[in-house]
Amino acid sequence: MVSPIKSLATLGVAILVTTGLARAGEITVYTAYEEDEIKAYVQGFNKANPDVKVNVLRLSTGDLAARIVAEAENPKHDVIWGFAVTNMVDPRILNSLEAYKPKDADKLDAKFRDAQDRWVATTGYMAAFCVNTEVLKAKNLPMPTSWQDLLKPVYKGEVVMPNPASSGTGYLQIVALLQGLGEEKGWKYLKDLDANINQYIKSGSKPCRSARAGEFAIGLSYEFVAIKSIAEGFPIKMVIPSEGAGYELEANGLVKTAKNKADAKKFLDWSVSTQAVELYSAYKGIVTIPGGKVSEEAQKAGLPANVAPILFKMDFEASARNRDAILTRWKKDIER
């Protein structure tokens, strides 16, 4: 029996929770991808595999991690898909995965694959500011170009940021600052930045959506939603901070208790295929599979063809290892 908890009928994707045995030709996938991405990717998979029905549960990164851990004794999904590597390597989640190397996974650099084949990272996202140019003009505010600029008093109350306790985007932003500045200077920066933050929002994309609606001047978000906002005609400028952009990789893995492993493996095989790369390139600034190209929309928004020079050198193992301690301190000292 399948019980719907929310319908995305307009997207052609049902968000479901499977409460009984999955049927042949049907899989349940848990993901943190955005809804418009889900639509495009699932349609692409179904074009190649029309006999497999894909049920998708989409939650923000932090909420999805909490759900996977809560369901550990009785997992309801076959595949984890598009999930932050920082969360995937949490032993409580990593130990729920079965070793499986998708077809053609060898074409990915080793740094994008688990050494034991429990996950493969195919895409990623990077931090970006969504700046509403009309709000800046109306309030006579300068264009920020860096994280340091955001500390200027003129931006007080004009900045919104994802809550790192629930948003993978929010977490990558603060952990990149902590890794880049060091513990002492990093925490001081976050406290100083808090003085200008209007609110911390649960979603990684919502700060950009709030900025593009004119509610705030600056939404700290990530490149995909900035690019889409610009393409849709909103008065947004995408700013990659001059210090470098923190980033996260998104990984896929097979759940040990999957009830339909044959079709789950088909899904994972497709996730590293040429067809998948073409779709990823329309939405992602980071595609780990050779052959991906920056989309025309991304180029128009200002994303360089080669993003490597603008990415901060992230230590994902440290991000994962220190996650609980960082979030505990952030909740104690900053969250409101």
TrEMBL record:
Keywords of this entry: Periplasm, Signal
A biological process term (GO) from this entry: thiamine transport
GO MF terms, alphabetically ordered: thiamine binding; thiamine pyrophosphate binding
Protein name: Iron ABC transporter substrate-binding protein
Pfam families the record matches: SBP_bac_8
Alphabetized InterPro entries for the sequence: Ferric-bd (IPR026045), SBP (IPR006059)
A Gene Ontology cellular-component term: outer membrane-bounded periplasmic space
Organism ancestry: Bacteria, Pseudomonadati, Pseudomonadota, Alphaproteobacteria, Hyphomicrobiales
